[in-house]
Design goal:
Number of helices: 7
Shape: elongated
Strand order of the largest sheet: 1-4-2-3
Helix content: 40-55%
CATH topology of the largest domain: Ribosomal Protein L4, Chain: A
Number of strands: 4
Strand content: 5-15%
Number of domains: 2
CATH class of the largest domain: Alpha Beta
Order of helices and strands: HHEHHEHEHEH
Structural class: alpha/beta
């Protein structure tokens, strides 16, 4: 019986990792900006006049000096700016975020709701002292998840490259995968479980 439960949990874990990988790749692809641009024969300036007459010169026929065969001509099948939109189902995205969140559960640092939610610190120096008093390693990549927006906390951490702040409703898969420790409250955990549609025990 124990072996069967273990295999089921292992299979579920493999599926969630596969889903995380799928959503992460789609997120990367959608974030890319394809801005490279080349000009076609019709877009290159000049070339309106026929270089020489059609017959009698001994040269190959030519209709424009901006042909892709000529130096200074257009480009055949060159890159053009375009958008890529790889669709991911909303339920899949939410499940992938929730799975990634709980894969990091060993890195959770729980604080009392009032301590984190009502924090009025708006200076970076004071925030670092706050982390030091809590014995939190401020050199690690840290993600602070709040149940609601806290502008003061955002101001205090915006100069810290290794600290990011988000809310339970705006979790980002890339943030979750790259963070080394997550600071949150029980209230935030309930928000995440209710919004992303599944609670873990």
């Amino acid at each position: 019986m124990e072996t069967k439960i273990f295999l089921n949990n292992l299979d579920r874990k493999k599926k969630s990792i596969g889903l995380i990988h799928k959503v992460y790749l789609s997120q990367l692809k959608n974030s890319k900006k394809y801005t490279a641009s080349t000009k076609t024969k019709s877009e290159v300036r000049g070339g309106g006049k026929k270089p020489w007459r059609q017959k009698g010169t001994g040269n190959a026929r030519a209709g424009s000096s901006r042909s892709p065969l000529w130096v200074g001509g257009g480009v055949t099948f060159g890159p053009k700016p375009h958008n890529v939109n790889k669709k991911i189902n909303k339920k899949e995205r939410k499940l992938a975020i929730l799975s990634a969140f709980y894969l990091k559960k060993q890195d959770f640092i729980f604080l009392e709701d009032k301590i984190i939610e009502d924090l009025t610190i708006n200076k970076t120096k004071d925030f670092l002292s706050f982390l030091e008093n809590l014995k939190v390693n401020s050199t690690k990549k840290t993600l602070i998840i709040l149940a609601k927006d806290n502008k003061n906390l955002w101001i205090a951490t915006r100069n810290l490259g290794n600290v990011e702040i988000t809310t339970g409703y705006n979790l980002n898969l890339n943030q979750l995968l790259n963070t080394q420790q997550i600071i949150l409250s029980n209230n935030t955990l309930e928000t995440i479980n209710s919004f992303y549609g599944k609670s873990y025990t």
